[in-house]
């Protein structure tokens, strides 16, 4: 690969995930302070999966056929950055509406962002001489970008205020402008018509005739229900324990890189079934650690649960992608991977976001709600004080009062009961999977794909 192109693609992938990591995990730490409740946050984390279900049409029918991929990427990120800047203006207004922010701004933003996940992969692969060997080195820059965003949140102090959205919006616009200078990636010239059935991978449903693959696909969708709890709630456990939120949450992505490097070693010895099972077991252990650690604010348990993200993600999701690639006929592999993503990060995560919001609401005590009302009031007072040019000492005192109220709010939530529910659910999925999944793919066959 041309060294200049490598640098361009590396910057593109870094910024692509920096934008996402700048707000996605820590958003609840700010949104709750402006009036979002548990069900509102459930909707915040539902709009992304909904966008993920819709956008295959955008990418498959428009971007791949009519416009150069880098130009579509540029326009989408510029639009997304503009939407985020507009969202912050609403957030800073008096009594911002969670419904308007969720279904207007966040939904609009995710409709611009989700297609770019596929577009960046397309641009990268089409400008490589050997994608199989070159793509992993570019893709890892995305994970590093997410990690860098977490550290930047802590360094700037944006992890609990609107600054996170300013940072995401700025990075999105920077990537939008940069995308115009990426290597030209013209649309595919083809007379072949692509059906909606192909776009959503429905032809790959034929794989469900294989009982083990059907068990795997259903288990994958179900395990994404507890996955939503992690993205939606875990950062507030970190906040409760007074750990740096952005940096601590980044440990999950750091462990993801580490476990990705050692995956081939385990693949050769365990095979697909037990790799997947260990991945699901890690979910059970992680949420059990949160259940005890959050209740008593035991930091090592909370950090341990976050570090387990590497096993949770790599051993289950990456293994699942490799397994799907092995099971699907060559002509159906792209559709099979698309169906897997749609059922997991689309349907599974959407259901999970709603369930997480419902369960969080059930375990948010009246005491926690009372403290939250004071936090919202104090947040508005800080915004007004900054607009009025009140002395810094006064603003600092208001911030300290708000932080203490916020800590009391989080401490009043029934964390043990909350986290044990996804832990038990993940355990049920694990047991069902182990009992019903019987595939004859040899460990050595699967390891060849890693």
Features:
single chain, Growth Hormone, Chain: A, 2 domains, 18 helices, 450 residues, globular, mainly alpha
Task: Describe this structure in a few short sentences.
Helices cover 80% and strands 0% of the residues.
What is the CATH top level name of the largest domain? Answer: Mainly Alpha
Order of helices and strands: HHHHHHHHHHHHHHHHHH
Number of strands: 0
Count of alpha and pi helical runs: 18
Low-confidence stretches: none
Number of separate structural domains: 2
Rg, rounded, reads 22 Å
The CATH superfamily of the largest domain is known as: MFS general substrate transporter like domains
State the helicity in percent bands.
Answer: over 70%
Percentage beta strand: under 5%
Our measurement of the CA-to-CA distance between the termini, rounded to an integer number of angstroms, reads 22 Å
Largest sheet: none
Which fold name corresponds to the CATH topology of the largest domain? Growth Hormone, Chain: A
Which overall shape is indicated by the principal axes computed on the Cα atoms? globular
Mean pLDDT: 88
User: What CATH architecture label of the largest domain applies?
Assistant: Up-down Bundle
Oligomer: single chain
* Class from helix and strand fractions: mainly alpha
Membrane topology: Multi-pass membrane protein
Subcellular location: Cell membrane
Transmembrane segments: 7-25, 45-63, 72-91, 103-125, 137-158, 164-183, 213-233, 245-267, 274-292, 298-318, 339-359, 418-437
InterPro entries: MFS_trans_sf, Nuc_H_symport
